[in-house]
Amino acid sequence: MQEGTGVTKTSMRMGGLAAAFLTALVVAAPAHAQSRAETLRYVTGAAVNTLDPTMPGTTREAFAISLSTYDRLVSFGRKKLGDNWVFDLDAIRGELAERYEVSPDGLTLTFFLRKDAKFQDGTPVTADDVKWSLDRAVSAKSLAGPQLLTGSLTSPDQFTVVDPHTFKVTLPKPDRLALPNLATVYAIIINSKVAKAHATPEDPWAQAWLKDHAVGSGAYSVDVFKPGEQVVLKRNADWTGAAPDKPAGFKRVIAQTIPDPATRANLVEKGDADIVIDLQANDALALKERGKLKVIATPQFNALTLISFNTKMPPFDKAEVRQALAYALPYDAMFKAALFGRGKPLFGATWGEGDPAAAFPVAQPVTLDLPRAKALLAKAGLPDGFSTTFSFNVGQAATAEPMAALIRESLEKIGVKVEIQKLPDAQMSTQVSEKKLPFFTEGIVAWLPSPDYFYRNFYTGNQRWNYSSIDDPEINELAAKARFERDPAKYDDEVRALNRRNFALMPQIPIWQPNQDAVMAQSVEGYTYQFHRQVDYRDLSRK
Amino acid sequence: MASAGIVARRTGRRFLSSLPALLGVLVFTFLLMRVLPGDPAVFFASGPNAGKAEIEEIRRQMGLDKPVPEQLVRYLGDVARGQLGRSMTTGQPVLTDLRQRLPASLELTFTALAIALLLAIPLGIAAALRPGSVVDHAVRFLCALGVCVPTFVSGLLLIYVFYYLLGIAPDPTGRVDVFAASPPDITGFLLIDFLLVGDWEGWRAAAGQLVLPALTMALFVLAPLARITRAAMLSVLGSDFIRTARSLGLPRRRVIVTYALRNAILPVLTIAGIVFSTMLGANVLVEKVFSWPGVASYALDALLASDYAPVQGFVLLMASLFVVVNLTVDVLYGLADPRVSIE
């Protein structure tokens, strides 16, 4: 007995040692090197994987970084949507160009570069750099080419250097999206002398080197780049694009990858992080209710969530079947369970005189109406229903999982048996691309949210983004025509016709536009919802 | 000197005999990745306008346009030259990624294992000395708790208490305080690097970042270690030589630590080796919760994107580490009990 007690003491002493070791570690104090107030710490679940935004596979976070490290010729202005600032597709202002002119026939765009513009290595920005950069965008094998194509920018022949500070773009047709395309993340202006020095015969556009090096004239230069972990940006004091003529608000920006959403919520609530935009809907709601932080909720007006049918696959090749399902979805319940009501619903509308509006997306006149759904199914020759699968990807599980469960429950009532299929992201995109899924949910985004662009990209052609594989002569014709329509009234008529046709065919059901909940410290100001759905660090400053 | 020679010879032989297994793992992983239904080229052609041409181009860049046998031969050739391909997820060569991330994982795992052993062995001994007592039941309860609670739950709980409520732990975001200057980069093990440059402030900060994730993992592996210690100690304590030692009136400490523990340590070593290998791969949840830039979360992200090269590189790395760990455990056997020599 006595022996036992003694030995327990020995082991307890060892345990005590372990405990002392742990305490010593926990109490370790953090050391802050630079002024916290001048630093913006942005946390996100995604990662930055390249400094060259044109690389295939570039993440959205990498787009955000490139927006700050590079300049483009022009950029989007901003407007008020409700109480919030959002980007404005129709107000394009100069960025590297101090001004631009569009010829009366809409075929020539002339850009006058800022004379004082300098790259981060101190050399002046010239029209030759602009030419090389845009040549690269349309020639190099990257994702820039297909994007600029949507603005009729396809060949280096369209880009001319007039003099060192004047640059001209010519268009084959007066394309409404040519100018906005030059404001997107792909149209970056690169320091061509430096980039050319790192080009090789196999890699004439220095794509390998630019992945890890940013040589632009932007508001911030890259201080630390750890792919998948964090990027630290340093303010470029020479950059004066923050209107009017001021450098960017923060001296330093840290964009850090924090995979766990609960940890991100903790960080911003404790004040250790300044801004976050990808919290879970319920966390954002809770933080808003606690009232300590600023929560700016903007419906993502250039993005929407869809429930898509494969119109090439029976029974969804029948419009009545698609319509039947559209009247059998529990919209309100899904909106509450998946989004906690944080978004703009696109269902339950009533179309009156003048509707649908000449916009995209427009709220659809659909509601949960089971008798009507049953009648439509019977009309399609399927009074007893059928079986199908409903797919979504793991990345969307937080919202799609409750949605799927509710859909299954509701469709059972009209005799449609649904099996739920949750796919890893790469598998989902492969199967969508190969048109193998009958019934699924996906989201779409347009950087340049003009209605004809939405219809051309997401409702025409045998390509991946035409989720429903719809091939309707009327939609094809109207969408192609609207692109080059210069008369605003006619354009609106065409868009209305597209919206009506789309509703009649019901290839996919727009269900909502989720909010982007930007949660930030009270002291952070200037947040603007941007086309790439990321934070533009240049907008922000501290009170 | 002679024994060192024997150890070296044994090590070399074991290493050679593990090469076929490594090759098998390499080929198997390679084929497995290609059988999975996800197509990385489609996934990475994610721009809103990427069409067939872009997907084909990415396929060409990744070498996926060639037939699978040719891809395999090329891949094996690359591995033989020490290249593991390029990750599409991070845009970096896989070798660079693994080299940067492995020390983070190893540092975390070593620390967790050290904490686990420091806690488990005394607990196991205490339980074995008085089986059926309150201490024994308390240890059993603690072990059950450690195993039952998933690491992401215990991790989040620790963060909630020590960071969110009490505010004594630094923010749970990676290996160093994000506002501090970049740490020295010598070995990649921050605790060692800060020691080498003599930066105590930095060392304390790095250790502070390490303690919560390490504790989370330690709690999870406490059970097997403590239970095996208890079982091994029980059988040794009942043996004749312990009774003899006791009857000779040797000091208690000497009986327990020198005679009993040393004889009971072999199974604990075996389990520790297995636990270590498992922890390296299985700590993905801990890495995610604490934003720890380790290899496991790296491999998981790549797997979700069907990014072949990093997954293959990771599996190869894990297989190699497993070989090394087994070897180390064998060598430690010899040190713990000179009668054992495994050929």
From TrEMBL, chain B:
Entry keyword set: Cell membrane, Membrane, Transmembrane, Transmembrane helix, Transport
GO cellular component, one term: plasma membrane
Membrane topology: Multi-pass membrane protein
Compartments (UniProt record): Cell membrane
Domain ABC transmembrane type-1: 102-333
One example GO MF annotation: dipeptide transmembrane transporter activity
SUPFAM superfamilies assigned: MetI-like
Bilayer-crossing regions: 15-36, 108-129, 141-166, 206-226, 264-286, 314-336
Pfam families according to UniProt: BPD_transp_1 (PF00528), BPD_transp_1_N (PF19300)
InterPro entries hit by this protein: BPD_transp_1_N, MetI-like, MetI-like_sf
Similarity field: Belongs to the binding-protein-dependent transport system permease family.
Protein's name in the database: ABC transporter permease
Lineage start: Bacteria, Pseudomonadati, Pseudomonadota, Alphaproteobacteria, Hyphomicrobiales
